[in-house]
Amino acid sequence: MVSRTTDDYQAMVMAGCQAVCEPAFWAGFDRSSAQGFYDYFCQLTQHEPRRASMFGLPHYTWLCINPKESEDVGLAEEVLAIIPEFMKSPNVLGIGEIGLNKNSRNEIAVLEKHIDLAASNDQLILVHTPHLEDKRKGTQLILDMLKADSRIKPERCIIDHVEEHTVRMVLDDGFWAGMTLYPETKCTSNRAIDILEVYGTERIWMNSACDWGNSVPLAVPKAMQEMKRRGKNASYVDQVAYQNPIAFMSQSPRFSEPEGV
Amino acid sequence: MAIQSNRIANEPFPVFIWPFQGHMADRKNILDLYFLDARARLIDIAAFMDRVNRAEGETDFRYDQFQDALKALESDQPNRAENVLLAFSDPTDEPIPVATTKAACGAWPGEANSD
Q1: Percentage of residues in chain B with pLDDT exceeding 70?
Q2: What is the pLDDT of residues B50-99, one digit of tens each?
Q3: A107 touches chain B (CB under 8 A)
Q4: Is A94 helix (H, G, I), strand (E, B) or coil?
Q5: B68 and B83 co-located in one domain
Q6: Is A102 in CB contact (< 8 Å) with chain B?
Q7: In this predicted structure, which of A28-37, B17-26, B92-101 has the lowest mean pLDDT?
């Protein structure tokens, strides 16, 4: 949400959104120092929750150095060192979105450090999987790394950006699967609903992308309308769009189910 | 319970009325909902291929994989989308030595051209 306008917040509230869950993200450009990340983490844990609260919207966040900036292991280690200070903030749900981008050895080294940070501090994990041609391989590498750490509980990890060729491996290993909806790239609303029809609604959620690129903050409300067009009943839509995210995030003691729903 | 008709009686062509909550969509419902959109996208694909043909020069691995992916559409198996995605995917399992770009191009350039 850090790159969205207040109009987006207002539209989300009017569409029935109950909470925002914002992962640490690549800014679209590389930050030049760990100090840049320090400021960003202040924004995620202090400023953005205040901005969201002006619209009555609870704001939660995740912390990490995004895999797109993980090729520089030295910078990543500096950033990892400042994360524990921010993990004490009341709106931090866990470590994320960590993962891989191009599936390189350095990205894997930094992912291992993130996994260790999460496991050592009993944090939930939000994973970003690679794009396009790199997704299948990267998703498998990530799952193998998470499974190799005996401290990691799959039910406390959500593997985001699943598509038709990766959702099965995620669910079969006991992890949560996330479908971040985009208007064109990655997963569209209709394909997300297709995936739900094939794989069911257990341990799977959908969420709206709200980043600096072409994304639609109201993608989930629109997908809810599309589910109704396909004949899904209110209970089904509620399970996918509301109950499942609540179930996953409630594993963090920081998360409170929104009131008045 | 039979699914009730979602169409206006005596109309010469289907007129879909939504929502029909509580009833699972049948194949005709799905066609009513998505046929025109899918038809338009299919024409877009055909036009894209015509556009490539009209242009001069050589294509590259992206178009080769695009043509391979099209074969998945001819299958009668219910996992065509999965197979299209796999047709564009890196089939290897080992990490690459170093990432020299952040971007993905949508098709696997092959081991010799990977980062």
Answers
A1: 77
A2: 999 999 999 999 999 999 999 999 999 999 999 999 999 999 999 999 99
A3: yes
A4: strand
A5: yes
A6: yes
A7: B17-26
Tokens of A243: 């109950």
The dihedral through the CA atoms of A143, A147, A152, A155 has a sign that is positive
- Domain presence at residue B71: yes
Nearest residue in chain A measured CA to CA from B30: A230
Q: Are residues B44 and B8 in the same domain?
A: yes
Note whether residue B114 is domain-resident: no
Q: Across residues A25-47, what is the average pLDDT?
A: 97
Q: Considering only CA atoms, which of A131, A210, A201, A125 is closest in space to residue A163?
A: A131
Instruction: Search chain A and give the residue with CA nearest B62.
Output: A133
Strand order in the sheet with A204-208: A20-22, A59-63, A92-99, A124-128, A157-159, A176-181, A204-208
Q: In chain B, which among 44-73 make CB contacts under 8 A with chain A? A: none
Domains held by chain B: number: 2
Domain containing residue A108: CATH number: 3.20.20.140
Domain of B83? 58-91
Do B25 and B46 reside in the same domain of the chain?
yes
Residues B7 and B46 reside in one and the same domain:
yes
Verify whether the Cβ–Cβ distance A106 to B20 is below 8 Å: no
- Does A238 contact chain B (CB < 8 Å)? no
Determine the Cα–Cα distance for residues A158 and A207; give it in Å rounded to an integer: 12
Query: Which whole number is the average pLDDT over B36-60?
Result: 98
B97 within domain boundaries: no
Half-sphere exposure of A155 (CA within 13 A, CB side): 5
Q: Quote the minimal CA–CA distance from B44 to chain A in Å.
A: 14
Using 50, 70 and 90 to split pLDDT, how confident is the model at B3?
Answer: very low
Residues in chain A closer than 8 A to B18 (CB atoms): 228-229
CB spacing of A133 vs B102 below 8 angstroms? no
Does residue B96 lie in a domain region? no
Size of interface A-B (CB pairs under 8 A): 101
* DSSP secondary structure code for residue A246 in this structure: H
Residue of A26, A141, A198 lying closest to B95 (CB–CB): A141
